[in-house]
TrEMBL record:
Family: Belongs to the GTP cyclohydrolase I family. QueF type 1 subfamily.
Signal peptide (from-to): none
Involved pathway(s): tRNA modification; tRNA-queuosine biosynthesis
Lineage: Bacteria, Pseudomonadati, Pseudomonadota, Alphaproteobacteria, Rhodobacterales
Active site: C53, D60
Enzyme nomenclature, EC number: 1.7.1.13
Keywords linked to the UniProt accession: Cytoplasm, NADP, Oxidoreductase, Queuosine biosynthesis
Predominant cellular place of this UniProt entry's protein: cytoplasm
Amino-acid positions noted as binding substrate in the UniProt annotation, renumbered to this chain: V75, E76, S77, H94, E95
Chain's role: Catalyzes the NADPH-dependent reduction of 7-cyano-7-deazaguanine (preQ0) to 7-aminomethyl-7-deazaguanine (preQ1).
Protein encoded by which gene: queF
Enzyme class of the recorded protein, top EC level: oxidoreductase
The name this protein goes by in its record: NADPH-dependent 7-cyano-7-deazaguanine reductase
Pfam family of the protein (one): QueF
Length: 155
């Protein structure tokens, strides 16, 4: 048995880190998937995601649901949290934020499948929901519904 751990290369977990000021500055870390021989789903839910309107600088809020079926890599959750919070200072439209997050995860993890649902709260009276998926999920993997109701306003 080797003395080397699959976690040896991580730089954020277990220590104090500085919040990245932009998504470009943020580092997404990955670790080898110790269960890579089995297809299974992983879900991250970020119900308090924030970014900025690129024109007004006003905050935008979303509930993000990220599902993926890992291949050889898992995302390290603290680096994902720091990556998502780096959008607090980032000005971009809802569509750009949602798809950029999904694409960055796909580039980093090379998952067998990934889906992101961005459920954005209304501004100007119109909610914008953004959905991204890499294709069909692997057969036989249980992937629950996202569980986020469509916006219903007060009624």
């Amino acid at each position: 048995m080797s003395d080397k751990s699959i976690y040896d290369g991580l730089t954020m977990l277990g220590g104090q880190t500085v919040q990245p000021q932009s998504p470009e500055e943020a580092v997404l870390e990955r670790v080898p998937n110790p269960q890579a021989d089995v297809d299974y789903a992983v879900r991250f839910t970020a119900p308090e995601f924030t970014s900025l309107c690129p024109l007004t600088g006003q905050p935008d809020f979303a509930h993000l649901v990220i599902d993926y079926v890992p291949g050889d890599w898992l995302v390290e959750s603290k680096s994902l949290k720091l990556f998502l919070t780096s959008f607090r200072n980032h000005g971009a439209f809802h569509e750009d934020c949602s798809v950029s997050i999904a694409r960055r995860l796909v580039d980093t993890l090379e998952p067998k499948w990934l889906r992101l649902g961005g459920y954005w709260y209304p501004r100007g009276g119109i909610p914008i929901d953004v959905f991204y998926q890499t294709g069909e999920p692997p057969r036989g993997v249980w992937i629950p519904e996202p569980g986020v109701a469509g916006y219903r306003g007060r009624g």
